[in-house]
Amino acid sequence: GATMALALLPPLSESPRFCRVFLSTASLMTGGSTLWVTDEVVPHIGDGLMVCYHPHGVIPLGFTLNGAIRAKTKRPQDYLPHEAQISSRVSGVQAPVLFKIPILRQVLQLFGCSTPATKSGMLGLLKRQMTFGIIIGGSEEVALHVCGRERLFLRNRAGFMKYALQHGTKLVVAYNFGESDLYNNVEALRSFNLWLVRTCGFVLPCFWGRWWCPLLPRAGVPLNTVFGTVLELPRIEDPSAEQVAEWHGRYIAALQGVFDAHKQQFGYGGRSLEIL
């Protein structure tokens, strides 16, 4: 009954107050949750940007706590680095299946980040030159997650690059240091979950953070999201496969550069990226 009622609710309006209350839950991250914006990225803040987050993690806390929701609070001076006062005219794209889940759909609407990660959804944001966040690795990255390893699903994920080239969009490479250490998971389900993504578009991970409350992330793991560099793309109305591949390769190189430049700073000097 209650689930049916929620399913029939009309769309909700974004709520700055709800965003502020939600961000207060960051105190449950005993290591803290911080957004860093490099000097290279600062001059581009305010432009229409596609902010590309890596990795997804089991629950995408870097994307959630260090993303558009900070601007949606309507108090950027309290929630954003002083040099990166992003406008509240921002959004985030989510897996389409999430909008079919009552309660979760309403939460996304209250965040004001309620655009499905579909072709039409992304092209709509790009045409309006809005800044928005996207987790490039998607559900596949949830399936591939191994606690303590930096595993990214990216080699065969180039659709975002084609759309960005068609609009001459600037891409911000964002890395979530600590995301891969927030939750343990059952690795034996990997093949099943990869099949589930291909077949149904979602995953069913078996995971836990703290023993007494599995949904809470592991204690003492800081989460640091770095907006590391900007890749400025040419506008190509109908990019060829070769052009998409070329810029996709440049993107991977830029991502590797951001990871290598900052991993020591956040205690991951011994880590390497696994780009799958």
Structure description:
The structure is a single chain. α6 links the parallel β3 and β4. The chain has 11 helices and 11 strands. The longest helix has 22 residues, at 241-262. The model has no long low-confidence stretch (mean pLDDT 91). The chain starts with a helix and ends with a strand. The strands form 3 sheets. A 7-stranded mixed beta sheet has the order 1-10-7-2-5-3-4. The protein has a domain at 30-61 and 89-94 and 117-263. α8 (138-144) runs antiparallel to α10 (190-200). The protein is an alpha/beta fold and 276 residues long.
Short description:
This protein is of the alpha/beta class. It contains eleven helices and eleven strands. β3, α6 (104-111) and β4 (115-116) form a beta-alpha-beta unit.
Cross-sheet strand order for the largest sheet:
1-10-7-2-5-3-4
Range of helix content: 25-40%
From the N-terminal CA to the C-terminal CA, the straight-line distance is 43 Å
Number of beta strands:
11
State the major sheet.
7 strands, mixed
Percent in strands: 15-25%
Please give the count of helices: 11
Helix/strand order: HHEEHHHEHEHEHEHEEHEEHE
What would the average pLDDT be, to the nearest integer? 91
Structural class: alpha/beta
Write down the oligomeric state: single chain
Q: What integer value in Å does the Rg equal?
A: 18 Å
Shape: globular
pLDDT under 50 segments (min length 5)? none
